[in-house]
Amino acid sequence: MLLQEADIGMEPKHTLEMKGISIEFPGVKALKGVDFTVQSGEIHALVGANGAGKSTLMKILGGAYGHYVGDIYFDGEKVDIRHPHEAKALGIDVVYQEVDTALIPYLTVAENIMLDKMANEMKGKHFIRWGNIHRNAREVMKRVGIHLDSRTLVQDLSLAEKQMVLIARALATNTNFLVLDEPTAPLSQTETEELFRLMRDLANNQDVGVVFISHRLPEIFEVCETITILRDGLVVTDTTIDAISQQKLVELMLGRRFEETYPKLHVPIGDVIFEVKDLNEEYGRVRDVSFSVRAGEIVGMTGLVGAGKTELCKTLFGAYPIKSGEMLLHGKPLQVRSPHAAVKQGVALVPEERRKEGILVDEPVYVNLTLPSLDKFTKGPDFVNTKAERATARKLIDELGIVTPSENQKVAYLSGGNQQKVAVGKWLIADAEIYVFDEPTKGVDVGAKRDIFELIGELARRGKGIIYASSEIPEILDISDRIYVMYDYTIVKEFATSEATEEEILFYSAGGQ
Amino acid sequence: MTAATESTSSKKRLSGIIDFLSKWGTIITIFVLLAFFSITMDSFRTASNMVTIMRSISIVTVIATGITVSLTVDGFDLSVGSVATFSVALVMSFFVWYGWGTIPAIIVALLISLIVAVVNSFLIVKLHIFDLLATLATMFIFEGVAMTYTGGGSISQGMPRLDGTPTTGTIPPEFRLIGQSPYIIIIMLVIVMLVHVFLTYTKHGRYLYIVGGNREAARLSGIPVNRYRTLAYFLSTLLAGLGGIMLAARIGSAQINSGAGYLMPAVAAAFIGFSVAGVKKPNAIGTLVGAILVGLLENGLIMMSVPYYSLNIIKGLVLAIALAITYYRKHD
User: Fold this and answer.
1) B170 contacts B114 by C-beta, under 8 angstroms
2) pLDDT one-digit tens code per residue, A375-429
3) CATH code of the domain occupying A272-509
4) Does the B14-327 domain belong in CATH 1.10.3470?
5) Which residues of A touch B221 (CB under 8 A)?
């Protein structure tokens, strides 16, 4: 605290200013003259609904998009950032949302951390000193406070660990500004705390300016000092965190008043339609799991990151091989040897990794929406009836409120929340009996989140069985009828949602007995 | 106007030109070549020479549509040349050695050729070998199989088998018709249309492209990914086998490694086809346009007395340019 007070009187070491930044993509004007300033030693929140332009702004700062209009000043001097190496030269490092794209899976932790150094600081040198690489990497990791073996292959790490490796890489070179684009989305509670400790250390003791993007508002109030709010490509507010309340922040983000909780649609719950008995996955990624789902019931499947929720979802969908156990739908055993078989028998999955698994970014919206149910849009010998396809897609775009110029737009150009609506929407036509949602609100703004909740409520009203897997306990408490808590690849506790509390769920999630 | 905005606007103009060229460059080149050859050589302009060009590209085109299908699933079939060689040897042996009729000979030859597809899809889908490498292996395997089958020699009417057994079978004249124009050209056009319709208008075509675009997302959408990858290799083998049948009808005998020479121009045609009219994915009509370009170039250069042994330089360059256009993408 003393240190911080002493800081206030001092001039910040560096100031980074972006002025009048605009950028356009086919069909979208993503930023419309944005001013953004960040200084050394502060943790600056950048918030906004999905599609507000946060990630785009930070990609410009990191040199990933060179075709913007506007000026960037570093310590008052105009600089031209059009390529990643130009950003790096100024000590600006961006850790993007999609961690896997920035890492090389078959290299070790040490090599990945030292990658920039190996790539940029070896002019004239040809031989690698492995001892140095590992020693330096370990030093950086120590500074960052991660405890990994520098010889582990990155492909064997968890998502949270990969993120730490990326942060370590940024810090291995001289860093003045560090941008973290939604770093906490895949992290557990303790991992998040650890990250915050690191962010504070960087800001207070190493004079780094940190830009923090997050959808979790309490986190912003916990860790940030200043905040910039974007909406539709414009800055709506730029202020200190003390000057704003959580309620006000949500209003500014959305441009309207917003209820914090999501009212659950109450529907009559029927008989058990889906039953899982002693399910085991071939490689132990699901162990002795038994549970049931009733018609119209939303079953919450929660637990910390790494508890096995995603693995369970994939096993139910036939994407992971089953070793033993039984799955019954309407009392009849299911044979799900592949996702293809699962879909045929009425199981649908909205996977966690949206861009990699849920949608085809290079295809138009209508192709994505009709993909699992293309059989319904054929005439004659398997000819696709594109007209019918497009008509259905237009209807669905309307119903789900997907923001897109038309059904022919490439999904790559939609915002995260709208992409997720496409990923969910494609299963509505398929007409499944059991819907499995794996972290459906990950990286989705509050408005789109509400839309998705309404959608799930509607499915329940139609008497479908819903499995909702998420590590966001408040969400689970809002939407579910019953909750299963997972720990170490198995179910450890069952609650009726009306009797569950966040504390209790956390207790069992953390392995308490 | 500042220097910075000037440079971005000129950059924009440049990328616009590149865009235009990658879309229409192939077709423009075809017309430029036509004009150039027509002006420099009187004999080039004749209608009979145009027919010659179309006839000469028909086998390449059919084989290239096979490669095109394998490309849709993000695969690559290098074994098509050997498949063609294999089916030439089979169909000729059925006529000359065993005296079969046209229809059974063609059908049985195509069916036996499909063994290559079985091996390819086993290696690629089941054993997870990279497409390029797996088909490189089968390319050699079936080149060898074809040669072993013919006993390391050629098969033609009246010629005794290598062990001295005299042969009595004849090549049916109606089979030879397949290799004559206009029939061979008609077959090519029909195949291109069929493949085009299949890829563009059917559910299966849609699935093939989706599997090629994002295999995991396709799988999690319930598409039987392995089945479609297998289908792609069966189709590419079938089309390559058909190319072999057309080749057999054209030359009327089975020569050693007769299909091998078709691999390179077929690959070039399929890759040139990517960019034609800005489709940006493998497609049958683009492949036909690509084959026309390659055929035109070859024909014109031969007429200009460029020696045959130097033609590969030009063909290789065309392939390199086609690949450059396909893989040179702007960073957007």
Assistant:
1) no
2) 899 988 889 999 999 999 999 999 888 989 999 999 988 888 889 999 999 998 8
3) 3.40.50.300
4) yes
5) 339, 343, 371-372, 426
